[in-house]
Amino acid sequence: MTVRRATGADVPVLAALRRAWTEEDHGAAPADPGFEDAFAEWFAAEEHQRAFWLAFDGDTAVGSMNVLEFTRMPRPGQPPGRWGYIANVYIAPQHRNGGIGSRMLAAALAHADERGYVRVVLAPTERSVPFYARQGFGVADSLLLRLPG
Ligand SMILES: CC(C)(COP(=O)(O)OP(=O)(O)OC[C@H]1O[C@@H](n2cnc3c(N)ncnc32)[C@H](O)[C@@H]1OP(=O)(O)O)[C@@H](O)C(=O)NCCC(=O)NCCS
């Protein structure tokens, strides 16, 4: 198993994983032949502010995630502050519970530390809470959430 940063050259692989995740959650989705182009456009628009990772079993990509970087409003006399939002964390079902997701998350958190993030935020599913808790995430008491009425 290996984990590495993903680049624009990996867009087809990232899109294939996203399609697989959609099919896992929603059953065989409509073919949506425009999806891969839409994904490539989204990646091109986002890559200046997101870091992407891929996890591999041999040569086969089995998971991915990304971190969206927010840059805080500058303050005079202070270095720029940043924080991160972890998104789209996915390991293919047959490769789960073997530690690869944890390795990928650790790589993203090392990146967060290198970039000096003042916080890392995410919205977990209930089942994944222990996965994140093992790497230091706790319940937020300093954020508010508004959902559309
Ligand atoms: C969450 C996920 C990335 C973890 O990857 P992984 O390689 O299985 O992770 P690890 O082997 O390092 O850790 C296993 C932990 O993952 C979590 N997990 C296992 N199966 C899961 C599932 N189907 N969905 C969500 N989390 C799961 C559990 O916390 C588990 O630990 P526990 O059994 O002690 O509670 C992976 O399960 C997954 O892709 N799930 C579906 C998509 C998802 O829920 N993404 C996260 C949304 S916030």
Report on the architecture of this protein:
With 149 residues, this protein is an alpha+beta fold. It has one domain (2-133): 3-Layer(aba) Sandwich (Aminopeptidase), CATH 3.40.630. The protein contains four helices and five strands. The chain has a five-stranded mixed β-sheet with strand order 1-2-3-4-5, sandwiched between helices. The mean pLDDT is 96. The site of coenzyme A has 16 residues, from strand 4, helix 3 and helix 4.
Primary descriptors:
5 strands, Acyl_CoA_acyltransferase, alpha+beta, N-acetyltransferase domain-containing protein, transferase, Bact_Acetyltransf, Aminopeptidase, 32% helix, 149 residues, binds coenzyme A, GNAT_dom, five-stranded mixed sheet
The count of helical stretches stands at 4
CATH hierarchy: architecture: 3-Layer(aba) Sandwich
Largest β-sheet summary: 5 strands, mixed
**Strand percent estimate:** 25-35%
**What helical percentage do the residues reach?**
25-40%
- Element-by-element helix/strand order: EHHEEEHEH
Bound molecules: coenzyme A
How confident overall, as mean pLDDT?
Answer: 96
What gyration radius follows from the Cα positions, in whole Å? 16 Å
Structural class: alpha+beta
Strand sequence of the main sheet, in spatial order? 1-2-3-4-5
- Find the CATH superfamily: Gcn5-related N-acetyltransferase (GNAT)
Count of domains? 1
The CATH topology comes to Aminopeptidase
CATH class: Alpha Beta
**How many angstroms does the end-to-end distance come to?**
44 Å
Unreliable residue runs: none
Q: How many E strands?
A: 5
